[in-house]
Amino acid sequence: QQQQQQQQQQDDLWQIWVDPSSDELPHLAATLTLAWMPNRKMVTLWEQQSQFHNNNTTSLLPPPSILTQALQVSRQACTKVILPQLRQHLLSEEEDVEQTAATKAIK
């Protein structure tokens, strides 16, 4: 019970930010970069970085429970936010190319 409370207190020290800005990045203790292929349900890139404190002797690494949560949140962001935006952009680009080709064919 006490160990579980300590773990919860440690977890409460961490926040998960999705897609931080370049101004926010210097203030983060750790970052996780993830590339996710939703159709294959496969992670193709996993990169972790963390800051060092106390004259580069102590690393601030998130606990495993936070890393697991960050993985889940990142996968959801890729699938539900980034992928639909990417698809929409690619489809609009394809429409632009088709319209340009049709215009050239008419001339």
Unreliable residue runs = none
SSE arrangement, N to C? HEEEEH
Instruction: Name the structural class.
Output: alpha+beta
The coarse silhouette is elongated
Give the integer mean of the pLDDT values: 80
Q: What's the total number of strands?
A: 4
Separate helix tally: 2
Give a brief description.
The chain is an alpha+beta fold. 50% of the residues lie in helices and 20% in strands.
What does this structure look like?
This protein has 107 residues and is an alpha+beta fold. It has 2 helices and 4 strands, in the order αββββα. Strands 1-2 form a two-stranded antiparallel sheet. A two-stranded antiparallel ribbon has the order 3-4. A hairpin with a 4-residue loop joins strand 1 and strand 2. The radius of gyration is 21 Å and the shape is elongated.
Q: What descriptive keywords fit this protein?
A:
4 strands, alpha+beta, two-stranded antiparallel ribbon, 107 residues
Task: Write the topology of this structure.
Layout lengths: L1 H11 L17 E8 L4 E9 L1 E2 L4 E2 L4 H43 L1
Antiparallel strand pairs: 1-2, 3-4
